[in-house]
Amino acid sequence: MTITLAREQQEWLESQVKAGVYSSVDEAVADIVSQRMRFEQLVQAEQPFDKLERLG
C-alpha cells in the first residue's frame, strides 16, 4: 500500500521513529490506525447508551 501524507504528518512520523517511540514509520502508522479503530469501536458501543439517556 502506498499513502501520501502532508509534509507535516510525514515529519511528525519520522520524528517519532527518530525518538524511539516506534521502530519504523510502518509500525507507527499501523499503531495509529489500530488506535483509531479501537476509538471508533468505543464510540459505537456508547451510542445505544446515549439513546437511552435521551429517552429517560
Tell me about this structure.
The protein has 56 residues and is an all-alpha fold. The protein has two helices and no strands. The chain has helices at 7-18, 25-55. The longest helix is centred in the C-terminal third of the chain and has 31 residues, at 25-55.
Percent of residues in beta strands: under 5%
Helix-strand sequence: HH
- Could you state the oligomeric state of the chains shown? single chain
Distance between the termini: 47 Å
For the largest beta-sheet, the strand count, sense and barrel status come to:
none
Poorly predicted ranges = none
Mean pLDDT: 89
The level of helicity is: over 70%
Q: How many β-strand stretches?
A: 0
Structural class: mainly alpha
Number of helices: 2
Radius of gyration: 17 Å
- Overall shape: it is elongated
Task: Outline the fold blueprint.
Elements lengths: L6 H12 L6 H31 L1
Give a quick rundown of the structure.
The chain is built from two helices and no strands. With 56 residues, it is mainly alpha-helical.
List key phrases describing it.
56 residues; mainly alpha; 2 helices; 0% strand
